[in-house]
Amino acid sequence: MSASAPFPQPDVAEMYCSHRNWLYAWLQRRLQGTGDAADLTQDTFVRVLTTRHLETPRESRALLTHIAKGLLIDHWRRRDVERAYLEAIAHLPEPQVPSPEAQLLLIEALMAVENMLASLKPLTRQLFLMAQLEGMTLAEIAGHTGKPVITVRRHIQRALVACMSTR
Fold first, then answer.
1. Full-prediction pTM beyond 0.85?
2. Crossing angle of helices 122-132/100-119, nearest 10°?
3. Residue 21, SS3?
4. CA triple 122-147-144, angle to 5 deg
């Protein structure tokens, strides 16, 4: 990195040379040879290049492990969403199956919804899903959960704000 870099970082190229094979093997063990370890290894180092909190080379493996674990979780979530989507469209006749490009866009949208829902507090998520998926009114949700209607309204409002901020 140049001297004009906005934050101190050890030489990322040196870190890559020193730890790439170790990280690749670590990811391969966790992915059980699915072939995605190389991509996640590269994604991990891309994140390192954009990370401001790496201060010393001693932290290299801990940082790589931390970033890679997050990427693994994202990878597994995406795989689960993709699998569920493909199962949902498996019954469609061939002319109705979305194109690969449309499928990719739909999966990206589903991942955005998944991430938004995961960011909500459990009660907020529960109340929001009761309203959106089960079509329950505020009064019905309040009656079902024992929460005051005003509390239910606040939680659903928070969820709706989260929906709007993911655009």
1. no
2. 130
3. helix
4. 85
